[in-house]
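Hey, I was hoping to borrow your eyes for a little while. I've been staring at a protein lately and its backbone has me curious. You're getting the sequence in one-letter code plus the fold written as tokens. Would you mind checking whether the tokens look sensible for this chain? Here's the protein in full, and shout if anything looks odd to you:
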Amino acid sequence: MQVDKSRYPMIINVHSLFFRNLNYLPLSLCLDSLDHQVINMFKSGFIKLNKGEPPKEKTTKAPNDRGVVYLGHVPHGFYENEMKHYFTQFGEVTNINIPKSKKTGKAKGYAFVEFLYPEVAKVVAETMNNYLMHKKILVAKYLPPNQVKSNTFWRCNKNQIPLTIKNRSIQRKAMERPLNPEQEKRSKAALKRRIQSLQKKLKSKGIEYEVQIEV
């Protein structure tokens, strides 16, 4: 089956990507399907009509061009979803990082919020600094690009926290595992030393407190 070249000029300019001779195509390949595949490759940039044409600049802003705000004294319950909903009133929020304890999975009390524009981040830092929220006074500080670490938001685009859950499970199993007699003896001896040290500190403050431990 011959191909009408005037009807398919785009296929001719592809320089026979699929076939060396475009005058003849296998009957099993539909022209409409071929048109669709070629158009998709043009849209994706895989095929270019003019090789000398410079590539189009991406509109996405580089991470270094964005603004980051450090938040301290973050109250309990003010987490990722609440922060994004709250700070959207200032501008577009691109990333939020709330560091959590590896053992318990609880928030450590501070956070990093990234905005699309540095000007918005500066306004947020100025507005939210010393702001009273849930009986806590927030500490907000704008971080220049040279003070933002490259791994600050390395896990923020993931919707789950597998490490904290895994470590919490590991710690719980480690605490609940049965001890052999030798380990139990060492554990009680360490506990006795800690209590004796505490008793010495209390005695230095004038407090008499005795604790009996079976070893």
Remarks:
- Strands lie at 67-72, 93-97, 110-115, 132-133, 136-137, 139-143.
- The chain has six helices and six strands.
